[in-house]
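[INFO] parsing input record for Short-chain fatty acid transporter
[DEBUG] input buffer:
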Amino acid sequence: MSNTKKKRGIIEGLAHASTMVMQKFLPDAYIFAVILTIIVFVASMIFTKQGFIGLVGHWGKGVWSLLAFSMQMVLVLVTGHVLALSPPFKKLLDHLSNIPKTPAQGIALVSIISYTACILNWGFGLIIGAIYAKEIARKVKGIDYRLLIASAYSGFVLWHAGFSGSVPLVIAGGDLSATGGSLTQAVPVSQTLFSPYNIFIVVGMWILLPIINVLMHPKNEEDVFVIDPALIGELKVDDVAKDDPYKLKPKSGLYFSAVSKEEFAKMTPAEKLENSCFVNYILAILGFAYIVYYFASSGKFDLNLNIVNLIFLMLGVLLHRTPRSLIDAFGEASKGASGIILQFPLYAGIMGMMTGVNADGLSLAHVISNFFVHVSTVKTFPLFTFLSAGIVNLFVPSGGGQWVVQGPIMMPAGLEIGVDPAKTAMCIAYGDSWTNMIQPFWALPALGLAKLGARDIMGYTLIVLIVSGLVIGAGVFFL
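[DEBUG] output buffer:
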């Protein structure tokens, strides 16, 4: 084998440099949240002239202001993870992980599957991408594990432009409380999710994302971060019996259980209930009956967060078959939500300070948003709305939370300038998901599964941030 080092391409060189920077300077996600808290506190004192006690009050009131929304987000994440851990999906992932034969193919396929799944549902996509990436890491030799997980997370870049995007779903459902009076009736998804500019952006990134991620893969073996498959842990699909995907060979994993007739006969009545599929089937019938009733009675396909969570929960109940399997899967899936549970109150406190007003009714969110409003024209307003939302998302990494912060400011301003309110709403949504590529908050579950830190992947996702910013900017400016 030749010892001559191959020259890095432009994209690979940029990714290598940004990864080195992130490795040295990006702190843990919890530290990142505390630093942001300090920045917002000081910035609010400077730009809104609020006092220490006043900002402490805003922070304290904000800390617990998003409990209901926090639970919705945790359930989206956990139920998506539980579904991904079900036997049918594990088998599907095993088959899909046999497709790529080279590192480039592995990176591309993870990018496509993660992005497509995030467009369908962000919680499911975020988890299924990481689990699929781990399966590929076991089978494809010479693949960079950090880039592989970064590729899985990069699919999250446009989740808000997909079918679980909270902003388009909220205004489609008729909740116009955060629009500042700019909307008087619900906005159908035909004007947001299925608009020409959104289709251009979503399809454009579907094409570009795998290409960019592949170009970042190191050409030289010494630059490749390879992980020992034994260190990844977790159940291998090889442990699943061939005749029945719900039966495990002896001494294999914990995600789903099946027992022989002899073992079942020796169980106590309580243990028999835990291992009986009838319990789950009865609950699944009830759940799916309500889902059908919900769509039939509403007269429209309203995919709000609650109904998405119920669909994922009932699919998990059905596909895991037994209560014991479902309970074990939920126990495992809940571990990925620990970082969110710890940090969401901090970000809710940041949101409290961002929106907390002084005696003149001015908040830091107003200062940021108004700056972009004042320099905007009817042509540039959507682009500046997107950029301002990207900045605000660093401090309020929550689609619903950001909508509450920016909607009442940007929506009326856009209407006054002459911009379609539906487009303004989508630009807020784009910014909210875009800077997740450099905001480690939502990467926590995937990183927990992969056993990596934020600094391991953010160098790569920074490149995705730049490319996707150009695509989104072109879509909202020219279309």
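[INFO] Residues 20-478 form one domain.
[INFO] shutting down worker
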